[in-house]
Design brief:
The chain has five helices and no strands. With 112 residues, it is mainly α. The chain folds into two domains: 1-52 and 87-112, no CATH class; 56-86, no CATH class. Helix 1 (4-32) runs antiparallel to helix 5 (88-111). The protein is elongated, with a radius of gyration of 20 Å. It starts with a helix and ends with a helix.
């Protein structure tokens, strides 16, 4: 029987590999073909798992970034509260799912 720590390590490794390989897979698909329909599964996978950075009103001040006169601190403070809302898919795939799987493995192994 495999030890619990090795099972947990396998789960973490799979999610880390998935995180780093999802974008190169999409790029490889587009390098091999120009057909969007062929690469659509990779586009969906990337769009559902990619973290999103929120922007604030400071960037929408008229003539683009050259018209902005705010501070970087203002952007960081204003955009941070929206990040969890915009990243529900990424948070659930990279944090919640592995934690639930690890807790399940731990619980099942503890019962034995």
């Amino acid at each position: 029987m495999m030890k619990t720590r090795y099972k947990i390590l396998i789960v973490i490794t799979i999610f880390v590999i998935f995180f780093f390989i999802r974008m190169p897979l999409e790029e490889a698909c587009f390098a091999l073909t120009d057909d969007i329909e062929t690469c659509k599964p990779f586009l969906i996978l990337f769009s559902k798992t990619a973290p999103v950075m929120s922007y604030t009103h400071a960037w929408d001040t008229g003539d683009g970034i050259g018209a902005w006169s705010g501070t970087a601190e203002g952007i960081e403070i204003a955009s941070f509260p929206f990040m969890p809302e915009d990243n529900v898919n990424a948070i659930s795939i990279y944090f919640v799912m592995p934690i639930m799987i690890i807790l399940g493995i731990y619980y099942i192994d503890k019962r034995k």
